[in-house]
Amino acid sequence: MNAREYLDILHVAEKLKDTTRHCTTTNRRTESVAEHSWRISLMAFLLRHEFPDLNIDKVVDMCLIHDLGECFTGDIPTFIKTDDDREVEDSLLNKWVKSLPEELSKDMADLYKEMEAQETKEAKLYKALDKLEALIQHNESPIDTWSDNEYELNKTYAFDTVAFSDWLVALRKEILDDTLRKIDSEKEDIAG
Fold first, then answer.
1. Which element (helix H / strand E) includes 44?
2. Using an 8 Å Cβ cutoff, are 51 and 125 in contact?
3. Hey, which residues does 32 pair with through a beta bridge?
4. Which domains does the chain show, CATH number per domain?
5. CA-CA distance, 52 to 36, in Å (whole number)?
6. pTM of the predicted protein model
7. CB of 17 closer than 8 Å to CB of 102
């Protein structure tokens, strides 16, 4: 890949800095897709010793690229994203990946194929972290920024995705405890 190709790739990826997600940060600022991708990448890195049998570098790679399709479509929350939305995003992403320098295009296409198949432990870990990070972020954001459906979603979301790992099941339970405490504190504030 030459320097111009490299810069062109970075210019496309930069769009994720301005692509907002549906949740906010602790200080009520709308989160970007890039921030979400950064944090799940960090989450993967921090689990290197918890999952010594996995290729964590590959998981980090998956986390870094997992939402690049949103450069072309924006973020659509999972609870309203349709199959048509996914098809459009996948089509635009695949077209872009095919336009990349050959070696990079193959590397990315292979990662996306593995991520989609959800057969390897690496792919399963990436997917679990993607979902768990959203729950963690909601627990960190002010509860008045939650949509009505998120009260129930934060209690039930991603348990199936973490089932392959006892460690992740324990993490999901801790996240649920945080959710329940947050909801209870809101009830106390209203009653108080």
1. helix 33-46
2. yes
3. 20
4. 3-191 (1.10.3210.10)
5. 24
6. 0.93
7. no
